[in-house]
């Protein structure tokens, strides 16, 4: 039975197959949150006299049962139900009788699904943020361990300047902090109540929308009832935008791991249990996991484009097109969690070949250091740059020791054998000379960790809201 079956018309099976599609599969994810929203709505209906106090507890008990069944994977949405909202209402009628028929008073499936989706996004994003924070913390721990492990720094995929393994790992950690700072954007939208807007034009009942928001632990209510419907898809897009940023940070890190763990570099060794084999080459261990992680940003961007393109040109109000915005965000949230979890495992098991890292620092990588050696002796930067570049081009190296001509003729050429062209001792010298904020020679982890804590603390109101919503189901 469908909620709108009342006129005796038997809909064509092809219509049902096309319009329903796999919506019941996705609605199973929404159903626990539909139960929370329905509990708050039922309490409000009781307070305004639509549901009798004696009817409320059977409804709440049925909602608790439905939520527990759905979380355990036992709740079923049958083909004849069309969607999760119908399945839930029929379940309530079966368990609570006439009171179950009153639950839909004052709402539409339109505001019902928006409410459930907002609660889901809030909980899933908060849960994901906790995992991202744990990964960032793990990276900072590894960064401190490898703070003095030299590593070539690259630009344009060519050796550029000396760096460290710690610098690379701390950079990924701070990138995740930046991503966490984006989470309050969609969470702020998700933290407003949609219930009471109905199909977009309100209902002729004295609904207490603010009370529903309070019961669900939400900050506020979206005021205009049409605008509630117009937000459908925008929250999904904003959420996917944040997920895309997280996947970009981790996708680029995965690319580094693929590259730096190859035989050509050998800086890192990937955990064997996180690699796969070849069907033809018995010696191969392939970084499939990290290659797939590298591809996740493309999937996230594709979902974002799918959702935003669906919204283009839609008139105000609800349209069935908007059903298409649900699968991308649910799939994106699932994939983001899987990505963060597997990268957390990878960071914990990552091995660094410190000897290979140090051996990779070719003498030319210190060319910029040699420029600054001359700068410290009073030679203008551009002159020092030119002199080192010319010396490098002739194969004579670059200056390290004091140049007796530095206070004289800045144009004097450097020649092979000149004491200004002797090689430097790499790691100790280049780290000691890089002491400004954020440079490889500094302890960055405490400052990044402070910012990580601040980003996590900004999510505390949403954690509290989640706990409040769960209490709405209690007696």
Automatic annotation (TrEMBL):
Pathway: Amino-acid biosynthesis; L-arginine biosynthesis; L-arginine from L-ornithine and carbamoyl phosphate: step 3/3. Residues 37-298 form the Fumarate lyase N-terminal domain. Its EC number is 4.3.2.1. GO terms for biological process: L-arginine biosynthetic process via ornithine. Residues 390-416 are annotated as: Disordered. GO terms for molecular function: argininosuccinate lyase activity. GO terms for cellular component: cytosol. Pfam families: Lyase_1. Keywords: Amino-acid biosynthesis, Arginine biosynthesis, Lyase. Gene3D superfamilies: Fumarase/aspartase (C-terminal domain) (1.10.40.30), Fumarase/aspartase (Central domain) (1.20.200.10), Fumarase/aspartase (N-terminal domain) (1.10.275.10). The keyword Lyase applies. This is argininosuccinate lyase. It comes from Eiseniibacteriota bacterium.
